[in-house]
Amino acid sequence: MNKGVNIMNGLRSVTTGTDNLEKTKTLFKDVLGLNVADKGQALRFGDAELNSGTRIHFVEIPNYTNQDNHIENIGLRLPSDEGLDEYRAILDDHQIDHSEITDLNGHKYFEFNDHNHQTFNIYSNEHNTGAPLGMPTFDSTVNPLHQIQGLGPVLLKVNELLLTQSILTKVFGLTHFAEYTPHPESYYKVQVFRIGEGGLGGELHLYAADEDLKMPKHGIVEQIEFATESKAQFQNALQQLESIGIPYQSLDQEGEKSLRISEKSGITFILTLEIKS
After folding, report:
1. I need a labelling partner for 260 at 20 to 30 A (CA). Which of 24, 170, 171, 270 fits?
2. For 180-228, what is each residue's pLDDT tens digit?
3. What angle do CA 70, 231, 132 make, to 5 degrees?
């Protein structure tokens, strides 16, 4: 790939499902203090302006189950180590279980689950470089100095690791730069990909599923969206798709163009060309 066009801004948004939008709204708006936009049968959460790199979307699906989900863990970032203590206290106040604070490559974090058993990690951005945080909102239940203001690393499991890895690097321009063993007893390694400037807000973690993930009955919901401001990067991705022969969709929404690839097991990757005013 031509390095001259390999310019990626970063992770733009993550989409997953929920069986109850009201419960999800209560957790993310009233408890965690994120900004929210109502999209009918979906909700979009993020920073004060719902900026790119801060958005997490939930789609309501009756009888939703995440049994065959690819997204195992969604990272969220806040400005400082002190904020982790505040959020743990907030979750305690609402009787929501969470882990102790631990460390990943010098970055402190803890995890919790929502009512759908989706796991989230809340990371401190205090010692991070790379993709910046968004803007705090003053219409929040949480101190603006400590609010969640960005996406963090996202952990995915996929059926065909090498195929997905090839798509991420050759089409979307991600960089494969590290691997790690998640637990001492693990027999597999997680592959780490850098998006744009990298750092906690620009990483995608990937590993091969133990058993084949099947397309859920409700169809495709899970989406990982990347963003670029480079027309050359976007055009290069399009040329790669044509050259390799991978099926894709071209979308044009609100003046922004996107390329969408969906794997047979039900995960979608999107590249959006962002138009800055």
Report:
1. 24
2. 998 888 899 999 999 988 899 999 999 999 999 999 988 899 999 999 9
3. 60
Q: Which two tokens stand for residue 152?
A: 């963090």
* Beta carbons within 8 Å of 226's beta carbon, 6+ residues apart: 8, 9, 10, 11, 12, 172, 174, 195, 269, 270, 271, 272
Retrieve residue 258's tokens.
């996107």
Is pTM beyond 0.70 here?
yes
d(CA 30, CA 73): 21
Show the DSSP H helices in the chain as ranges.
21-25, 81-93, 161-166, 231-244
Cβ distance 111 to 87 under 8 Å? no
**Among residues 62, 46, 38, which one has the least CA distance to residue 11?**
46
Instruction: Classify residue 141 by its DSSP letter.
Output: S
Sign of CA dihedral 274, 160, 1, 150: positive
pLDDT tens sequence across 221-261: 999 999 999 999 999 999 999 999 999 999 998 778 999 99
Give me the CATH number covering residue 63. 3.10.180.10
Residue 117 gets the label, from left (phi > 0), alpha (psi -120 to 50) or beta, of: left
**Domain count within the chain:** 1
55 sits in which H/E element: strand 55-60
CB 144 within 8 A of CB 78: no
Helix (H, G, I), strand (E, B) or coil at 277: coil
Beta-carbon contacts of residue 231 (< 8 Å; ≥ 6 apart): 273
Distance CA 28, CA 66 (A): 18
Range of the domain at 177: 3-273
Q: How far apart are CA 147 and CA 54, in angstroms?
A: 12
